[in-house]
Amino acid sequence: MTQPPTATALLACITLSSPALAVDTSRSEVREFIAEMQRDYEFDPDALTRLLSKAETKQNILDAISRPAERVVPWHEYRLQFLNPQRIQYGVRFRDEHPERLKAIGDAQLANTVLGILGVETSYGRITGRFRVIDALTTLAFDYPPRGEFFRSELQQFLLLTREEAVDPLTALGSYAGAMGSPQFISSSYRKYAIDADDDGRRDLWSSWDDIVGSVANYLRAFGWRQNEEVVVEAAVAAEDIDRFSAGRIELNETVQSLRTKGARFETRMPDDAPAMLVIAQGKDGPVYRVGFNNFYVITRYNRSTMYSMAVHDLGEAVAGASR
Questions:
Q1: Model confidence pLDDT, tens digit, residues 211-254
Q2: Is 240 among the catalytic positions?
Q3: Cα(128)–Cα(132) distance, rounded to whole angstroms?
Q4: Given the residues 32, 42, 100, 121, the one annotated as active site
């Protein structure tokens, strides 16, 4: 969840053949990390040293996270990456195979959003990552200074997670940034928001669809999802009125009424005082306008992008309404 979904899509193209070196556990920063894990979490230092010595520093992980940003695609191109017949049919198949799991969420709009997230993130579990999580996190924790502190914390969370959930730290796979399972949770999110929906005593985001679906719904609820509220609606704005809006920032800086007062035209069931935001995207034939509400903003907590949030919503709605 730390990477845009396009990075997940690129993951399948990254080979694992680049040179790798075993983590040097004699390095001062590694020794300090081991000492912290012993002091703060009672990890056996010898056992942890042996474990980390089996992790590998991989150049292709550093290359992937350091790659210059690609051209920022316009909304109409970005949308087509996810709103295509194949991915919609994957979603329909998933929907039809897991009706009770989706129904258990208890909120049709939230269930559709879960469908959208799983489709955008990993194409319903088809692209979940081929890197060992321990390699990704040790490489970035100790050899990627720009975000070393963050990934050192995620490595700590991953080790705690493997202890709590009986996960083999040497076989768990994920993205090059350490995101795991079909929902692509990073370690800290996994520990905080994952739930044991199938009551088997473990929170398994790799192979338990009960846990996966329930955990994504739990994540969104934790960030303020509101039951059965609208997410986003189409809008129209006259060109001469556009300067009246503060669009571009991801925040609920308007209300339904204030947007209408400034000239936005849209239909919604939301009350006049409902928090809202105007979203402007680049369509094929010009600007596309939408009005996002609280639940739209909540989706951006999963990935801080309005295009991501729109893609999740559109894919979820397409899957929910499609037939085989």
A1: 999 999 999 999 999 998 999 999 999 999 999 998 889 999 99
A2: no
A3: 11
A4: 121
